[in-house]
Amino acid sequence: MRIARRTPAILLLAVLTLSACGGQNTSDSESDSDASSEGFPVTVTDARGEVTLDEAPQRIVSLSPSSTEMLFAVGAGDQVTAVDEYSNYPEEAPTTDLSGFTPSVEAIADHDPDLVVLARDAEDAAEQLEKVKIPVLVMPAAETLDDTYEQMRMLGEATGHADEAAEAADEVESEISGIFTETKEEIGDTELSYYHEIDDGMHSVTSETFIGQVYAEFGLDNIADSAEDTAGGYPQLSAEYIVEEDPDLIFLSYPGSDVVEDLSGRPAFDTITAVENGDITQLDPDIASRWGPRVVDLAESVSEALIAAQEK
User: 37-169 and 189-311 share one CATH topology?
Assistant: First the structure.
C-alpha cells in the first residue's frame, strides 16, 4: 500500500507566490510597501557576518537559483526584479542573462537593485557592489536540511516577510519529516544500498554531502562511502567498483533522454541488482542540486523509488 502523499512543494510555492503577487492597484502596492518596512532596520547573518538592512528591499536581484526559489517561497517574489540565467523556477521568476558565477557589477547596477543576493562562489563581487552602495547578502550552499530552513527564515527577515518565511520553512520541514517517517514505516527493516551518479563520468556523492544526508535519512547505504578517495564528498568511481558493490537502487541526477538506457548498457552493468530490477531513477537535475524548498520534491522522488523497489 502506497503512502497518501502530501501537498507537493511546487503547489506550496504556487500558493505562497500567488498570495504575494495577488491583484494590487497602486494604492495597495504603496500600502504593502509601507507594511513590509515595519520592523526595519533588521540585522541578519549571511556567509560573511552580520548585515543590516535599513529598509525592506523593493528591487531584489537574485543570482543564485536556490535563493531565488527561497525568495518566492517566503513571499518576496513580488520584490524580485531580476534573477540570473539559471534561475528558471518558479515560472514567473524574471530570468535574465545575468551571470551568478561571474557577476558583472555594471550589469547588476543597471537593474537598480536595493538588495543583491549572491551565492558563496560569487562572494568577490559583494565588496564591489557595496562600494556603489548596493546592499548584498552572500548565501552559502546549504550543507544540511536545517541550513535550508534557516536560510528561508533569514531571507524572510531580510525582505520583510519573517512570519511568512517561518511558516514556509516549518511547512517544508514538516513535509520532509513526514516523508522520511512514513516511508520507513512502509518499507520496514528493508536494507537497501544505492548509487547516486551526477554525470556520465561516474562521479558520485558521499553521505557527507547535502543530498547524501537526505538519502541517509531514509536509512539507505551509500556505496560511495566505501570508495578509496572520497575527499570533497564527490568521488569518481570506477565501473568495476560499482558492479562489485552491486547497489539495489541507482539515482541519476543529470539531463538526457537516454541516460538510463546508456547506464544499463555499460559493460557488466546488466548484472547489477538495480539494473536487473529496473530500479533506476532519473531525478530532475535542478531539484537534485538546489537546496531550497523543492527538497521536498527530491525526498518524494527517493521515497517513491524506495517503495517501488520494496514492492517487487
Answer: yes
What does DSSP assign to residue 277? T
Q: How many residues does the chain have?
A: 312
- Cell numbers describing residue 81: 526584479
**Contact present, 219 and 248 (Cβ < 8 Å):** no
**Phi, psi of 286, deg, nearest 5:** -70, -50
Residue 261 banded pLDDT, cuts 50, 70, 90: very high
54-81: per-residue pLDDT in tens? 999 999 999 999 999 999 999 999 999 9
Helix (H) or strand (E) holding 80: strand 80-83
* 35 vs 202: CA distance, rounded Å: 51
Pure H helices in the chain: 9-21, 26-36, 65-73, 105-109, 124-131, 145-159, 162-187, 210-217, 239-245, 259-264, 273-276, 295-311
Residues in Cβ contact with 176 at an 8 Å cutoff, skipping those fewer than 6 apart: 145, 295, 296, 299
Q: 122: Cβ–Cβ under 8 A, 6 or more apart, which residues?
A: 63, 64, 100, 101, 102, 103, 138
State mean pLDDT over 258-277: 97
Residue 42 bridge partners (DSSP): 53
Domain 37-169 carries which CATH code? 3.40.50.1980
CATH superfamily entry for domain 189-311: Nitrogenase molybdenum iron protein domain (3.40.50.1980)
CB 98 within 8 A of CB 83: yes
Residue 100 to residues 85, 87, 150, 248, 300: CA-CA distances in angstroms? 8, 9, 22, 37, 29
> Could you tell me which of 306, 255, 300 has the C-alpha nearest to residue 282?
255
